[in-house]
Amino acid sequence: MAGLEVRGAVVRYDGTTAVDDVALDVARGEVLALLGPSGCGKSSLLRAVAGLEPLAGGTVRWDGDDLAGVPVHRRGFGLMFQDGQLFAHQDVAGNVAYGLRVQGLDRAARAARVGDLLDVVGLAGYGDRSVATLSGGEKQRVALARSLAPQPRLLLLDEPLSALDRALRERLATDLRAALLATGTTAVFVTHDHDEAFTVADRVAVMDAGRLLQVAPPATLWAAPATRTVARFLGYQAFVADDGHDLAVGPAGLRVADPVPDGAAVPHGAAVPDGAAVPDDAAVPYDAAVPDGAVPGTDGWSARVVRSVVRRGRPEVTVRVDLGEGVRDLVALAAPGRVPADGAAVRVELDREGCAVVG
Ligand SMILES: Nc1ncnc2c1ncn2[C@@H]1O[C@H](COP(=O)(O)OP(=O)(O)OP(=O)(O)O)[C@@H](O)[C@H]1O
């Protein structure tokens, strides 16, 4: 099979097995995200593919050729890290041209390629800027252009966005995907952020404790997580038994049933601005008469409102509820303009569009 082929890969440090019998294929032109919690072995696997870490077992092949014994600089792979590590004494163009000089491209060809790449990463016209004057996001764009410049046959990216703030990360993740597609680059992208993985990758490989749990395109992974661990890691917040199935309840899988009882909604709820907590003085008294747990004869549960926040115009209500796994605080969405007050007794129900069958 063309591209990257990893079989039975094992990476060990003293007593720790960081990567445990991993098999993975990345086709030419494909972007694959390695997604998993901190310490699960993502970086170790990436480093083993790069040749920076020895394999204690298994093989790494490119287009069928075993890379055992091939040193890092002869693999034709590019690397990009969280901290792009630009050359501070060179301008933007000088940084991007680095790998092209190593390849022996003449000045005119270098300048043309640097111009193209700055365009691809959204920094057209930045060539003469000193890297010291760039923002964190701009620096990572330069680092990306520099990694793409030598046209690596595989680009390995280790958490390239994690040093940036959330809003910037979201924007850059979209731009990163566009840049990889525009240049037809085959890439493996390490992240612990599922939104980022879903934005950047054609397929996502979920990793935990050194092992790969599931590899699938984002939509498939989201619609059919193989196990509860995968579902939890993707952001599913709870599980309920449903008609013989194990149903994972997603971030939009619970809703506050309409109508929110009279007196339990914050007056002028629609006026609560995005990101603002509902003010305390809007709280209604705790109604001890409402039992917790499943509501007989309905598809819902009685719940107590802990707090409400309006995000992107939609109230997100943290409710204390027992879906069958014990009392937990979960998030339920409410209708715009009907923000239930802290302490209110409400009924929550499943929104099946926001749920997935596990397994
Ligand atoms: N050089 C090393 N020496 C000893 N143990 C190491 C070394 N590098 C990593 N480990 C251990 O191997 C395991 C996997 O680490 P790794 O960095 O691959 O995980 P990760 O998923 O990339 O984590 P993070 O997202 O926090 O970077 C961890 O238990 C880590 O402590």
Question: Which features would summarize this protein structure in a list?
Answer:
359 residues; alpha+beta; Rossmann fold; 2 domains; 6-stranded mixed sheet; 6-stranded antiparallel sheet; binds adenosine-5'-triphosphate; ion transport; ATP-binding; iron; iron transport
Please tell me about this protein's structure:
The chain has 359 residues and is an alpha+beta fold. It has two domains: 3-229, Rossmann fold (3-Layer(aba) Sandwich), CATH 3.40.50.300; 237-268 and 289-358, no CATH class. 23% of the residues lie in helices and 31% in strands. It has eight helices and 19 strands. Strands 6-7-8-3-9-10 form a six-stranded mixed β-sheet, with helices on both faces. Strands 13, 14, 15, 16, 17 and 18 form a six-stranded antiparallel β-sheet that branches. A hairpin with a 2-residue loop joins strand 1 and strand 2 (16-26). Helix 2 runs parallel beside helix 4, helix 4 runs parallel beside helix 5 (166-182) and helix 5 (166-182) packs parallel to helix 6. It is globular, with a radius of gyration of 25 Å. The two termini are 28 Å apart. Adenosine-5'-triphosphate binds next to strand 2 and helix 1.
